[in-house]
Amino acid sequence: MGARRSRPEPGRARDAILEAAEKRLREAGPGAIRLQDVAAEVGVSHPAVLHHFGSREGLVRAVVERAVHTLQQDLARALAGQLEKGRADGAALFERVFRVLSDEGHARLLAWLLLSGEDPLANDALRAGWAGIAEVTHAMRVAKAKGRRKPSYEDTRFTILLSALALFGQAIAGRATFAAAGFEPTADMERRFREWLAALLARHLEEEPRPSRARQA
Amino acid sequence: MGARRSRPEPGRARDAILEAAEKRLREAGPGAIRLQDVAAEVGVSHPAVLHHFGSREGLVRAVVERAVHTLQQDLARALAGQLEKGRADGAALFERVFRVLSDEGHARLLAWLLLSGEDPLANDALRAGWAGIAEVTHAMRVAKAKGRRKPSYEDTRFTILLSALALFGQAIAGRATFAAAGFEPTADMERRFREWLAALLARHLEEEPRPSRARQA
DNA sequence: TCCGTGACTTACATGATTGTAAGTAGGGCG
DNA sequence: CGCCCTACTTACAATCATGTAAGTCACGGA
Q1: Is residue A107 a contact partner of residue A172, using CB atoms and an 8 Å limit?
Q2: Which residues of chain B have a CB within 8 Å of the CB of A172?
Q3: What are the pLDDT digits (tens) for B116-138?
């Protein structure tokens, strides 16, 4: 095969650098993005990295931006993919979302960013997606509730929020927490918990709300 | 006040160093523990830190050990304090635990350690405490269930696990998540969510379990 | 009182990490 | 073909962080 291109493809190296840096970000946090390491992993010299990103800060910014973007994409895709099936299957939805958070290391990344003071969730598309889920879910509840007492919108939103917090919590603290709680920390056990949670929330969503004890203060 | 003691108190400086280092650990993670910074904050030279802890690693170890210990203490105290009241008040318990996790920055610390690969929850006392809560809760459920179908022990344990995950999740991701979900991210709103959660779980704990649909695969 | 020890200090060595300077090589284009 | 731009490279400078060496000083006990 003809002349070896010693100039593989423009942009290739840049992407590879981003990739390598993101891996480090996910696994060990922003502090672990070191020019030399990243460069070595990609097979270039460290000034090559500076050439593409100007400074370490620039690299970190670019990585975070990209990571947040793909996280949001993946999450949105997972949610959309599950929702458009029409039938709501809580457990399946949970599995998809958990997969996204857990498998790709998105949850770890989210946690690193959150702890570092970033706000990776501040994004209109994400908010809109969330609102959409809440509306669809609530409409479904209200439709099923005919005659009986209708659930409050807040209740629906809280339910979704709880799912998110629990899934996120499990993705980053699952292993340790399961062990501390005396469960064997196996993937199967964790999945079982998610199924249990899905069932709990599904039941809650269909049940008639209790009259809330009026709280004064 | 006679001769000024230029030798304030043995151990004082050591504690102050630990304190300063722990603050950094909570706020910005293990990587942010730098000898010079910590020393400067306490008002000593950085070799003084080395003198007490041998190496940076030694300092980090000591800090983590102490932090994990106080975290476990605080948590155990909070749980014990609530439980020994006899009456189970889920909401109050949640507030206490959340306080411990959130106010002292324990949740952040936990998260940093978890992300860094430590397992701050691996502790017999903590496991025992957890098991105790599960047993007490379950006994209460079973007592109330006379005649009706009895809940499974796993269900009780999952319920407690869910509380822990949600509380932890809220402590580190609460602000961002509430905002993303379209709630105003106020402390009051977050408290309301906890009350809602406590009510949800309390209701679940008193309800008769549904027959589980047998799953084949 | 004298000595040892613990709690430091200043000065320095070392290695890691980021950043700069200057030069090279390939590819597209007028 | 010659030029310029991009994508690098090697060599070097600067800074920072950890760790070491050696000395000082107060206190407490023999």
Answers
A1: yes
A2: 111, 114-115
A3: 998 999 888 888 888 988 998 99
